[in-house]
Every structure is written in C-alpha cells, then in structure tokens.
Design a protein that fits this description.
heterodimer, A: about 400 residues, seven-stranded mixed β-sheet, globular, B: about 150 residues, alpha+beta, Sufe protein. Chain: A, three-stranded antiparallel β-sheet, iron-sulfur cluster binding (chain B), Fe-S cluster formation protein, NifU-like (chain B)
C-alpha cells in the first residue's frame, strides 16, 4: 500500500509487522516535519511574549485549536481544551465537573468494557462524593452492551461515561442515542473517544455529547498531546484544577481570578510542539479518503477474524463490526507466551489486560491478545499473523 | 522460521513444568502467604509456606500466569522445600541475576531452576520468571496476606 511510504517508521523497520495501532499509531512524515520545524522556526512561548515570533506562534497555536474544533464539529475554538491525552481530559472532567453534579443519592454509570482511564476516575469520584458507582454489563463476547447500558440509566443518573469505541473488543456505540437517554433524565455524557477518532468521523454537535476526550498519539500525532471538548456553558462554570501561568485573569495577594475558557484549564507552558504536530496530523488526515481508510480497516478485521477462526482453539472477542481491533485467545497458550512467539516472528501485538481489568474479570480471562490496525496495514500483515498463530498453537502443544 | 531463541526459552522440560506444575494449589494451614501481581499483565500468584523451626516444610503456589511464571513457580517451590528460611534470599538473588544475565557462577545452587536462564534473551519476560521468587523473598520477611 502506497500509504506506508508516508510513514518513515516502516522504512526504519522493514521486517516489522505492526499490529498495535490501538496502543499508538505510527506518524506520517508530515508530523515529524512539523515537530522539527516548530523547534527550528517557531520556538517561542505562547500567550506571553510581545515580540513578533511569540505573537506568530500564539496565532498558530490558536489556529490549531480552531482546526481541532472544526475537525470535531465543535461550535467554536473555545470548546477545545488542550490536554496531555485522553486520560488527562477524563480526569479533568471527573475532578472539576464531577463534584458539581454528583453527590449522595445520585448515580454515575459506566460500562464494564471501559479502559481504566474511563473507569477509575468515576469510581473514585463516587467514593469522594458519596454517589453510587454503577457498571453496566457487557456481552459474552466482551462487547459493550449498548441496550444494557441504556437500561441502566435511571432518574438518579447524573453522569454516564462511555467509550465511543472500546479498546479491547472494538465495540462502537451510538453516542447520540446514549446522549439522548442521559439528557432525558437530566444527566451528562462523557465520551472516551481515544479509539474512535483515529478511524471514524466525529461530530460532537450532532451527537450532543457533553464532553469528548481523545489523544493525539493514536491519531497519527505526537505523544503527550490530547484534546478535551466540552460544551461552553459547562466549561465556563467549571473551576480550574491546576493553577499557575497562562490560566489567570488577575492575581492579588488574597484572591485570584481566572482566564476565560479554554485557557483557564491550560496552566503552565503547554505542549506547543505537540500541538503543532497534532495540527499537522489532522491536516494529513484531512487529505486522506477517510471512508476508504475505514473500509480498508474493516476488510482487515474481517480477514483476520476469518483467518483466526479456522485455527483450532481460537476464541474471538468482539464481533464482525469491531472497529480496527481483533482480540483473541488461543486455548492452552497464555497471551504472553503467544506475544513472545509472535515477537520472534517480528509481529508486534498487545498481550495483557489492555488497561481493562474489569472487562477481563467479566470475560473470566487474565488477558487477551489484541491485534489492531491502522490504515497502513495490509492483507499480508493479516496473513502473517494468522500463519504465526497457527504455528504457535503447534509449538506450544508440543507437536512442532 | 528462526525459533532457536524460542526453543531455548520454551524447552520441553519448561513446558512440561508449566503444564504439570509441582506444588500447585493451596495449603490447608499455611504459616505464611504472599500474593503478588504483575500489574502490567494481570498475572497473579499466591505463595503459601508451612514453616517449622525456621525451615520450609511445605510450599504451594496458585494463581494464573504464563508458561514462564508457572514453570518458575513449580521450580522455585521445589527448590525451597526443606530449606532454612535464611537460605532463601540468596537463592532468590542468584535466580534474579541468572535470568537477567544468562549465567551466574552460583547457578548450580539453583538445581533444575537454572533451566530458566534462557529468559535473559527476552528482557520483557524477566518479570514473569521472577514473580514467584519475589513472593518467596517476601514470605521470608514474614509478610502474610491472610
């Protein structure tokens, strides 16, 4: 596939079959160029200096905020808070917004398929505030059970936190439908978009999610930069959780006041290089045929599920509709042993609990193997993996 | 396919040890019990010791884990049964050095457990091999999670 040529990583690792894009995506040359160019041409702090270079860098920084807003169909740039990543964004909402809306007698609802970063912040918020923490069931295949989640919403539900696409089974949920159900009882919806943004278009205005967090590094951008979208009225009423430079209006000995959103939530020098890289990643993505990318990834999922299902002892999680992720286990072979075996064939997959121990407990397994795709993966990658897994089965069962 | 390294890691004797581990299960009246987790992968291992006059009279391990951690638990328990508690920390140290470095002048003291030295070629798996031994070290220190 010609797209691979845009990713210098693959030239540096010609033998490697990279099937771990759900952990982090590889980066196109355009992103690497933007990072270098920032430090070479534009390095100045933002929202401080009065000299031309600092002014220009601030302008670019804010232009990328507007670019992100347009990318997500947010009403305006002020809806976009730059964070360190999805985890940072979800924790910001839990710490700042959470206590404003939950307390004794109210309920926080998550699914049993959430990543720890969209599970623990809410579990701990419930502990701090006296709210009830509820976990909706999953299906036997490890999919987020959307109808069970909807049924778990009660008049006491004040917050629902859910992944748009889950990170183990790749289940996609109907965010708009859940938002409607949550809003009908006067609650708020927080969406973990980490696994959706790389693969599918996001429209926060259409879905009406109240908050939506994602990470740049899974969307072909750099590590250490993320985005939190929030509705204007909610962000405006939220207190800052970090204090320092950039986030103030006026500071006196006894009192301080805060800058308007989003700067109120961006204390300290931000990850400016990361934001330049993120802007380049979204520009690059905008030049791609995203429908074709999604269709290609769906074909890879189908091919891998078909190939693996022919191997004796395979358990597949998720479904044919899984978004760019195939999780599985091979009977009698621990996922770590399988991952080590695959690594020796230069195949990089994830093996473990995928930061989803509550889901592993529901599936009754300590871990799974997860292969996940980016647009740069090929049918040959799928064939290599299925062949190696079949060989591993023979190796560990003593018939090699 | 280049399976040489893999063949060293997963020698048949190690696979046998993992699939048919010795001293696997729980003691009815343990004097010491330690549960350790491998937080990056979710493996969990409980080690129980029966101790009389500072000597390990019986040991069992339980939990779930990969081939390496299960084989290691089997070999470790087999090694420490009958030993003085005071001997165990040095054995743990030798094992840890062996799986990191691939050889150790004192490796004979480990008996059969030295077959796990192939782990040194797989740095990501060292923690799988050492989990049971870390539990043994903590059990000697007197930790008990009962």
């Amino acid at each position: 596939m010609q797209m691979r040529e845009e990713f210098p990583f693959f030239a540096a690792h010609p033998e490697l079959i990279y099937l771990d894009s759900a952990a982090t995506s590889q980066k196109p040359q355009a992103v690497l160029t933007a990072l270098t160019a920032y430090y070479r041409d534009s390095n100045a702090n933002v929202h401080r200096g009065l000299y031309t270079l600092a002014y220009n860098t601030t302008e670019r920084y804010e232009a990328i905020r507007a670019q992100v807003a347009a990318f997500m169909h947010a009403p305006e740039a002020a809806n976009i808070v730059f964070t360190r990543g999805t985890t940072d964004g979800l924790n910001l909402v839990a710490q700042s917004f959470g206590p404003q809306v939950v307390g004794p007698g109210s309920e926080i609802l998550v699914s049993g398929a959430e990543h720890h970063s969209n599970f623990i912040p809410w579990q701990q918020l419930a502990k701090r505030t006296g709210a009830t923490f509820r976990v909706a069931p999953v299906t036997p295949s490890g999919d987020l059970d959307e109808s069970a989640l909807l049924r778990s919403i009660t008049p006491q539900t004040k917050l629902v936190a859910v992944a748009a696409v889950t990170n183990v089974a790749g289940t996609r949920v109907d965010v708009a439908k859940i938002a409607q159900a949550v809003h009908a009882v006067g609650g708020y919806l927080v969406v973990d978009g980490a696994q959706e943004v790389p693969h599918l278009p996001v429209d926060v205005s259409a879905t009406d999610a109240d908050f939506y967090a994602w990470s740049g590094h899974k969307v072909f951008g750099p590590t250490g930069i993320g985005v939190l979208y929030g509705k204007s009225t909610l962000l405006s009423a939220m207190p800052p959780v970090q204090f320092g430079g950039e986030m103030i209006d006026e500071v006196q000995d006894a009192e301080s006041t805060w800058a308007p959103v989003p700067l109120k939530f961006e204390a300290g020098t931000p990850n400016i290089a990361g934001i330049y890289g993120l802007g380049a990643a979204l520009t690059w993505l905008g030049q791609q045929d995203r429908g074709a990318m999604a269709a290609h990834e769906a074909e890879l999922v189908t091919a891998l599920r078909t190939g693996l299902s022919e191997i004796p002892g395979i358990t597949l999680y998720g479904s044919a509709a899984s978004v760019a992720i195939v999780s599985f286990n091979l009977a009698g072979v621990h996922p770590h042993d399988l991952a080590t075996f695959l690594d020796e064939q230069h195949i990089a997959v994830r093996a473990g609990h995928h930061c989803a121990q509550p889901l592993m407990a529901r599936l009754g397994v300590p871990a799974t193997v997860r292969a996940s795709f980016g647009p740069y993966n090929t049918a040959a990658d799928v064939t290599a993996l299925t062949t190696a897994v079949a060989t591993a089965g023979r190796f560990f069962h003593g018939t090699h | 396919m280049a399976l040489t390294k893999l063949d060293q890691l997963y020698r048949q004797v190690i696979l046998d040890e993992a699939y048919h581990p010795r001293h696997h299960g729980k003691l009815s009246a343990p004097d010491r019990s330690v549960t350790l987790r491998n937080p990056s992968c979710g493996d969990v291992l409980t080690l129980q010791l029966q101790v009389a006059a500072d000597r390990v009279t019986d040991a069992k391990f339980s939990g779930s884990g990969c081939t390496i951690s299960q084989a290691s638990g089997s070999l470790m328990t087999d090694l420490i049964i009958g030993r003085q508690l005071s001997e165990i920390p040095e054995l743990v140290g030798i094992f840890s050095d062996l799986v990191i470095n691939g050889s150790d002048p004192r490796e004979d003291q480990l008996g059969d457990a030295a077959i796990l030295k192939g782990v040194h070629q797989f740095p990501a798996r060292v923690k799988c091999a050492t989990l049971a031994w870390k539990a043994a070290a903590q059990a000697v220190e007197g930790a008990t999670d009962d």
